[in-house]
């Protein structure tokens, strides 16, 4: 595997972690949102990743393995239904619906995504340094 392919893999992983960080930021921004119905209430979102190795193996040398973002899914965790008849968004029965975002879980996910992103930056930097060293060997 060439060092250029390593850069492609690290780049795809950084892109995937960027999607993960954006989803986490969106979840945290909407954590305290309320709605008058369960259908319109914000639900936590999570990206779905897949290794692109199988696609690369079938495509030969031109395809590059890496990380693919297959999509974003909404959490199926139950919403928080709260009786608050004085709230302006309360339904006819006096209930409001709060998001199912767990802020502690989101912060842990954000730290994990940030660490993964940093690790892939280091992988790309190491590959770059190795390429530069290889070029210097030819000058000698």
From TrEMBL:
Ranges where the Flagellar basal-body/hook protein C-terminal domain occurs: 93-137
Subcellular locations according to the entry: Bacterial flagellum basal body
Location of the Flagellar basal body rod protein N-terminal domain: 7-31
Signal peptide stretch: none
PROSITE patterns: FLAGELLA_BB_ROD
Summary of subunit composition and partner proteins: The basal body constitutes a major portion of the flagellar organelle and consists of four rings (L,P,S, and M) mounted on a central rod. The rod consists of about 26 subunits of FlgG in the distal portion, and FlgB, FlgC and FlgF are thought to build up the proximal portion of the rod with about 6 subunits each.
Family: Belongs to the flagella basal body rod proteins family.
Protein's name according to its UniProt entry: Flagellar basal-body rod protein FlgC
Organism: Pseudaeromonas sharmana
Lineage: Bacteria, Pseudomonadati, Pseudomonadota, Gammaproteobacteria, Aeromonadales
